[in-house]
Automatic annotation (TrEMBL):
This is Bulb-type lectin domain-containing protein. Residues 1-20 form the signal peptide. PROSITE patterns: BULB_LECTIN. GO terms for molecular function: D-mannose binding. The keyword Repeat applies. Pfam families: B_lectin (PF01453). GO terms for biological process: response to other organism. Residues 39-158 form the Bulb-type lectin domain. Keywords: Hemagglutinin, Lectin, Mannose-binding, Repeat, Signal.
Amino acid sequence: MSSPIFFSFLLLGLAGAAVALDKVPEKDRFRFINEGEYVDAIAEYDATYRAVSVVGSPFQLTFYNTTPNAYKLAIRMGTPRSGSIRRWVWEANRSRPVRENATVSFGADGNLVLTDADGTVVWSTGTANKGVVGIQILHSGNMVLYDKKGGTAKLVSRKSESDGSPGIYSLVVQSEEPILYVDASPKPLVYFNNSVVRATFGSGSKVPGTFTCKSEDNVTYELSFGYTLVVTKYDSNLSFLRLTPDGDLIVYTYDDRVEFNAWEKTFSLFSPDQFFFSSSACYKPSKCLPLGICDGEQCVACPTAKGTTGWSPRCGTRCGPKYNPSYTKVTGVEHFLTQYSDGEGRLSLGECRRRCNVDCNCLGILYYEETSQCWLAPILRTLNKVNEPKHVAYIKPY
Ligand SMILES: *[C@@H]1O[C@H](CO)[C@@H](O)[C@H](O)[C@H]1NC(C)=O
Ligand SMILES: *[C@@H]1O[C@H](CO)[C@@H](O)[C@H](O)[C@H]1NC(C)=O
Ligand SMILES: *[C@@H]1O[C@H](CO)[C@@H](O)[C@H](O)[C@H]1NC(C)=O
Ligand SMILES: *[C@@H]1O[C@H](CO)[C@@H](O)[C@H](O)[C@H]1NC(C)=O
Ligand SMILES: *[C@@H]1O[C@H](CO)[C@@H](O)[C@H](O)[C@H]1NC(C)=O
């Protein structure tokens, strides 16, 4: 790749024209309506999809959905006949799915526009009358995370496999170094900083933080992020970088010569057995959820009030059918919840506490002893001191 440009544009491969104000030839314009049959093929996230006529093997523009009537305009990767799964490598505005009968059109002005069924323009390439004369998806997997002007772009994880809306992890290239962030209040926190890691590797040279693919000979292809990430067995042009819903940074490489098992996970930042480079899995925030101790890349123990116990995925959860902690009682308090909502209604104190025990979002309960009224509190913050000792709060222990 010569000059770095936006990742989405690269995948779309919008061909810039030499002469300004040229128009898209009639035969290359299209308008596709999101309706009708789905393609009969397996795709990532158990998605169903409709194919738009913009293809550049192994890529194709599609409308896909994982929930009824909520589609994303996306590029899928995988050859049409392959028995391997098709993966989603790019999506137009993940926060804003479109409905049945949405359209994607590419008109004479060279702008690719996504319009919802009600006529709302949801997304466009913003290339109207910029001399674009065609649209093409290239056989290329190069991805760069900043534009020509040096503005930063963020790669944001999905919330989960089934929910494509923005998740809590993001990758940003700052001062030409990749940095991973996890959302936190009041501001996102760094959980991977390439320059710190590079310093411990003893490499002094500063290199641009771009994701590039280059062919060393006809056999191996190298992916680098300033330094070598991985050498793939096959064409690294057909590789893509993904920030997973659990915050790992991975590279998938596709082998378009084979029918089955065409995908290989060629890199995982937090996987300990990478030959080239990795960060300890114990620095991945999601490794031992919700709260555990990680040692030698494995979750090994749970911290508890009585010291550590053996690891279990229930570690640190303050909820569950067998969870019955001693709550801290505060007498003579009310809360905005008791003031403005009905809560769970009338319940015995035992039942009120039991509901909080099993509810992982419950941080404590508010209880009116004289009326047996019960509230489960997903946030507590401020307790309002009142002159009524029968109005109490029970706070779950940490
Ligand atoms: C994506 O959609 C959201 C919600 O409609 C909107 O606020 C946002 O500006 C859109 N982003 C882009 C890049 O179009
Ligand atoms: C899509 O548009 C067609 C033609 O206007 C209409 O018959 C159909 O009911 C629409 N589908 C939905 C789900 O709105
Ligand atoms: C990453 O680490 C470098 C070197 O320690 C430091 O100068 C830089 O500020 C860090 N970046 C972030 C975003 O924390
Ligand atoms: C790679 O393949 C090309 C064309 O098949 C050939 O001309 C070239 O010599 C090969 N290079 C190496 C390093 O094997
Ligand atoms: C990978 O992409 C580069 C640049 O677009 C191209 O020259 C090369 O032929 C591609 N490799 C393969 C195996 O297609």
